[in-house]
Write a structure and sequence with these properties.
single chain, about 190 residues, mainly alpha, Hypothetical Protein Ta1238, Chain: A, two-stranded antiparallel sheet, two-stranded antiparallel ribbon, 4 strands, ATP binding, corrinoid adenosyltransferase activity, cytoplasm, CblAdoTrfase-like, PduO-typ
Length: about 190
C-alpha cells in the first residue's frame, strides 16, 4: 500500500532520485528518462480520456493503470535479483500485451484499409490519441536505449510497441471508424 502524507521530501534537491530498489541515480539517467516518459504518456492519456466515452473510456482507464505498472517496472532495476527480493517488484506481464492485441483485433475490422497515411487530427479524441502514440514511441525508444546498458523487462518494451499500435487504431475508431480520418496528400502544397 502506498501512503503519501508528505509530498516534498527535499531528497532530490541535489539532482538525484531514488529508484524502486532504494538505489539513487541522477534525475537525467536513462532509467529515469524512460519511466518519466511513461509518466508523461499517462498524463497525456488522461487528457485524451476527457474526450472518451463508454468502452473507449474504460479501455483508456485500464491502459492508464498499466502505465503505472510499467513505470513501477522500469523504476526497479536489477531484474536478475527479483526472485531474491522479499517483495517481488511489479513487472508488466504478457497478459497485458495480449489484452492490447485482442482489443486491436476487435477494433481493426471496423476500419477500411488505408490507402494513404493519415494526419493527426479529425476529432479531439483522435488528435489526443495521436499525441499519445508519439509520446509512446518515444517511451519505447528510451526503454530500448536503456536495455542496451541495463536489464529491462522485454515484455515492457513489447507492451509499449503494441500500445502505440493501439493508439493508432483507436485514433481511427475515434474518427468515426476512420471515415473522418484526415488523409495525407503528398506534395499537395507545392
Amino acid at each position: 500500500m502506498v501512503v503519501l502524507n508528505k509530498i516534498y521530501t527535499r531528497t532530490g534537491d541535489a539532482g538525484e532520485t531514488a529508484l524502486g530498489d532504494g538505489s539513487r541515480v541522477t534525475k537525467y539517467s536513462a532509467r529515469v528518462s524512460a519511466y518519466g516518459t511513461v509518466d508523461e504518456l499517462n498524463a497525456t492519456l488522461g487528457v485524451a480520456r476527457l474526450h472518451a466515452e463508454g468502452e473507449m473510456a474504460e479501455r483508456i482507464a485500464m491502459i492508464q493503470n498499466d502505465l503505472f505498472d510499467l513505470g513501477a517496472d522500469l523504476c526497479t532495476p536489477n531484474m536478475d535479483q527479483d526472485a531474491e527480493r522479499e517483495y517481488p517488484p511489479l513487472r508488466i506481464a504478457q497478459a497485458q500485451v495480449d489484452r492490447l492485441e485482442a482489443e486491436i483485433d476487435e477494433m481493426n475490422p471496423k476500419l477500411e484499409p488505408l490507402r494513404s497515411f493519415i494526419l493527426p487530427g479529425g476529432s479531439a479524441l483522435a488528435a489526443h490519441l495521436h499525441i499519445c502514440r508519439t509520446v509512446c514511441r518515444r517511451a519505447e525508444r528510451l526503454s530500448v536505449e536503456l536495455s542496451g546498458d541495463e536489464a529491462v523487462n522485454p515484455v515492457g518494451v513489447k507492451y509499449l510497441n503494441r500500445l502505440s499500435d493501439w493508439f493508432f487504431v483507436a485514433g481511427r475508431i475515434a474518427n468515426n471508424n476512420g471515415a473522418d480520418d484526415v488523409l495525407w496528400v503528398p506534395g499537395a502544397n507545392r
